[in-house]
């Protein structure tokens, strides 16, 4: 718009029709046309009406109406581009054409050809160009809307598929895994009552297995609820822990590992109590998993060291063992603990490293200060609910954190229970 106004000023300053200098009236009409185009840029109907009135005045008062003709054509172009109503554009085009024909008749009543051709050019070109631009924009908007609709449909289908998978996993956990764990816990409880005079060491083992199994059932029940709750996020941090409770929970995990025979030194930064709930739960699960792996692969008599530090808001976590002890005999199995640890960390934007270290093994990670926000989870399909997992009556304890590392054993073996479920 400014460029058009500057072009009009240049026309007035450097040349007009027949080389005549612009008159004062021509300058006034031109400046009014420039000001109207700027002030009424978004009020297109009003702009066209004012420009048409100025063109009528120019046709009566001055010989050269070029500036006002261009202003009227530009206003008609903007109106045609913007309005979705063809009747408005047609009325505007008819108004401008009528003014041109009337002005031509006023100047030379005997020559109708020139006014008609001028009207076709001054009116037809803006209308045609405006229709082309408006149609192109409309097609672009339709293409964007179609692409957005397709994207939303793909996301909806993906969310529905994830919801189906979550429901299927929940059913398997409830109907298969929870059933077998509940059966084992109940059988251990029966064994405690059948053998009341057993060796105290055997009784302690029974009690530990019973506590661990009971806690595992409670965690399974929570996990099934999480999988079936459409409001729960789909990241690895399915549950959270109060920040102030994290140091005590880590100490409890260490204590449970020591009960299994490990020697654990730990350094927990005082600022660990300020870690947010999501990363705090990740740190707790990583600790339980890593100490379980130490017991499984380095033996229950191994020595481990846990370090949790907070620097610039980032959480630095590591567990190192000396590799000592006798590796217990383990049944064959898959072992997905390290993979689960890495996935849990990557969801929170961190990275996990694991490998040999000074004759033993080290697992470490850095969790960034900012936790990414995951997408919401859709509502699972109807009919996915099922009865809650049965929980036996004995006292609750802590659950095992099972997993493995490369070159180690499977995911089953001597558990090291800790607060919450295994990662």
TrEMBL record:
<feature type="compositionally biased region" description="Pro residues">
    <location>
        <begin position="371"/>
        <end position="393"/>
    </location>
</feature>
<dbReference type="GO" id="GO:0016020">
    <property type="term" value="C:membrane"/>
</dbReference>
<dbReference type="GO" id="GO:0046983">
    <property type="term" value="F:protein dimerization activity"/>
</dbReference>
<feature type="domain" description="Signal transduction histidine kinase subgroup 3 dimerisation and phosphoacceptor">
    <location>
        <begin position="165"/>
        <end position="231"/>
    </location>
</feature>
<dbReference type="GO" id="GO:0000155">
    <property type="term" value="F:phosphorelay sensor kinase activity"/>
</dbReference>
<feature type="region of interest" description="Disordered">
    <location>
        <begin position="143"/>
        <end position="163"/>
    </location>
</feature>
<feature type="transmembrane region" description="Helical">
    <location>
        <begin position="87"/>
        <end position="106"/>
    </location>
</feature>
<keyword id="KW-0418">Kinase</keyword>
<keyword id="KW-0597">Phosphoprotein</keyword>
<keyword id="KW-0067">ATP-binding</keyword>
<dbReference type="InterPro" id="IPR050482">
    <property type="entry name" value="Sensor_HK_TwoCompSys"/>
</dbReference>
<dbReference type="InterPro" id="IPR036890">
    <property type="entry name" value="HATPase_C_sf"/>
</dbReference>
<keyword id="KW-1133">Transmembrane helix</keyword>
<keyword id="KW-0812">Transmembrane</keyword>
<dbReference type="Pfam" id="PF02518">
    <property type="entry name" value="HATPase_c"/>
</dbReference>
<feature type="domain" description="Histidine kinase/HSP90-like ATPase">
    <location>
        <begin position="283"/>
        <end position="369"/>
    </location>
</feature>
<feature type="region of interest" description="Disordered">
    <location>
        <begin position="351"/>
        <end position="423"/>
    </location>
</feature>
<dbReference type="InterPro" id="IPR003594">
    <property type="entry name" value="HATPase_dom"/>
</dbReference>
<feature type="compositionally biased region" description="Low complexity">
    <location>
        <begin position="394"/>
        <end position="404"/>
    </location>
</feature>
<keyword id="KW-0902">Two-component regulatory system</keyword>
<dbReference type="Pfam" id="PF07730">
    <property type="entry name" value="HisKA_3"/>
</dbReference>
<feature type="transmembrane region" description="Helical">
    <location>
        <begin position="112"/>
        <end position="133"/>
    </location>
</feature>
<feature type="transmembrane region" description="Helical">
    <location>
        <begin position="25"/>
        <end position="41"/>
    </location>
</feature>
<keyword id="KW-0547">Nucleotide-binding</keyword>
<dbReference type="InterPro" id="IPR011712">
    <property type="entry name" value="Sig_transdc_His_kin_sub3_dim/P"/>
</dbReference>
<protein>
    <recommendedName>
        <fullName>histidine kinase</fullName>
        <ecNumber>2.7.13.3</ecNumber>
    </recommendedName>
</protein>
<keyword id="KW-0808">Transferase</keyword>
<dbReference type="GO" id="GO:0005524">
    <property type="term" value="F:ATP binding"/>
</dbReference>
<keyword id="KW-0472">Membrane</keyword>
């Amino acid at each position: 718009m400014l460029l058009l106004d500057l072009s009009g000023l240049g026309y007035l300053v450097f040349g007009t029709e027949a080389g005549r200098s612009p008159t004062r009236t021509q300058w006034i009409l031109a400046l009014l046309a420039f000001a109207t185009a700027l002030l009424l840029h978004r009020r297109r109907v009003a702009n066209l009406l004012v420009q048409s009135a100025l063109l009528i005045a120019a046709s009566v008062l001055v010989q050269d109406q070029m500036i006002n003709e261009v202003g009227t054509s530009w206003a008609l172009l903007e109106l045609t581009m913007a309005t979705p109503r063809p009747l408005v554009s047609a009325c505007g085009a008819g108004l401008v054409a009528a003014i041109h024909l009337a002005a031509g008749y006023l100047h030379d009543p005997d020559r109708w050809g020139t006014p008609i051709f001028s009207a076709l050019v001054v009116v037809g070109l803006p209308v045609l160009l405006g229709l082309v631009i408006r149609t192109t924009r409309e097609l672009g908007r339709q293409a964007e809307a179609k692409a957005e609709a397709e994207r939303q449909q793909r996301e909806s289908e993906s969310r529905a598929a994830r919801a189906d998978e979550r429901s299927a996993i929940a059913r398997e956990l409830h109907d298969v895994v929870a059933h077998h764990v509940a059966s084992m816990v109940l059988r251990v409880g029966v064994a405690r009552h059948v053998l009341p005079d057993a060796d105290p060491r055997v009784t302690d083992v029974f009690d530990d297995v019973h506590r661990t199994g009971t806690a595992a059932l409670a965690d399974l029940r929570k996990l099934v609820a999480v999988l079936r709750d459409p409001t729960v996020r789909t990241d690895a941090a399915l549950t959270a822990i109060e920040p102030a409770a994290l140091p005590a929970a880590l100490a409890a995990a260490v204590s449970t590992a020591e009960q299994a025979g490990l020697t654990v030194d730990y350094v927990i930064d005082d600022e660990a109590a300020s870690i947010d709930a999501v990363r705090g739960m990740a740190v707790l699960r990583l600790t339980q998993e890593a100490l379980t792996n130490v017991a499984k692969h380095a033996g229950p008599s191994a020595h481990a060291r846990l370090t949790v530090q907070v620097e610039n808001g980032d959480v630095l976590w590591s567990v190192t063992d000396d590799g000592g002890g006798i590796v217990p005999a383990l049944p064959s199995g898959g072992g997905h603990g390290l993979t689960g640890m890495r996935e849990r960390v990557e969801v929170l934007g961190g990275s996990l490293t694991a490998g040999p270290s000074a004759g033993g093994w080290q697992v470490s990670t850095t969790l960034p200060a900012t936790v990414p926000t995951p997408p919401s989870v859709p509502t699972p399909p109807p009919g996915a609910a099922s009865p809650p997992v049965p929980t036996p009556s004995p006292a609750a304890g802590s659950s095992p954190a099972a997993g493995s590392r490369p070159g180690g054993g499977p995911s089953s073996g001597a558990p090291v229970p800790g607060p919450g479920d295994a990662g």
